[in-house]
Amino acid sequence: MGESPVQSGSYRRGAKLRACELFVVLPLFLWLGTRFSQHHREFLDWRIFVWAAAVAVVDLLPIPASAEMAFSLSFPIELSAALVFSPEVAAAIAFLGAADRRELRRELPPLKALYIRGQIAWSVALESAAFHQLASLDHSRWYQLVPAVR
Questions:
Q1: Sign of CA dihedral 13, 15, 16, 21
Q2: Which of 20-29, 38-47, 49-58 is predicted with the least confidence, judged by mean pLDDT?
Q3: pTM for the structure as a whole
Q4: Residue 78 burial (CB < 10 Å; 0-12/13-18/19+)?
């Protein structure tokens, strides 16, 4: 069996591209680390790992699509996590759960895999922050929740 482009070293990536990827990943790690140190109990709930596992399982389901188009059905689970959990916990769920078959086959460089997960985590964090600014599952009436989710 042949080596993947990442394993053989033939997958060359420029410094600007790596810097862009770090620009997404490092602030995410800093933010999540800071929030974890301040609210560690929120992150230690066992249900977070169940949510992350659900995202990973759905991400790894085979979806018939063209080779150029990546498609995932995990968005509804990630959106649900954004509504139920705080932005930082929802981001952690998305980051931990995001899975890509190319990672398993070692076709993605590690930084690019982190970058992809980071993009997903940031989008879920922003979804969660926007929702929680507009409504609350605990205190809002149903007619306030509909516009907040849309």
A1: positive
A2: 38-47
A3: 0.82
A4: buried
- Whether 8 has a pLDDT exceeding 60, the answer reads no
Whether 124 contacts 81, CB under 8 Å: yes
Query: 51 — phi, psi (to 5°)?
Result: -60, -45
Reference 114, options 42, 39, 43, 27; nearest CA is 27
Calpha distance 106→128 (Å, rounded):
31
Interatomic CA distance for residues 113 and 98, integer angstroms = 10
- What ranges do the domains of the chain cover? 14-61+72-149
Exposure of 141 in the CB half-sphere (CA atoms within 13 A): 1
The tokens 């070293």 sit on which residue? 9
The encoded tokens of residue 42 equal 């929120």
What's the pLDDT score for residue 57? 94
- Residues 91, 122: contact at Cβ < 8 Å? yes
Report the distance separating Cα 133 and Cα 104, nearest Å.
37
Q: Is the pLDDT of residue 10 over 60?
A: no
For tokens 């205190």, the residue is 139
C-alpha distance from residue 132 to each of 29, 52, 109, 139 (Å): 22, 20, 35, 11
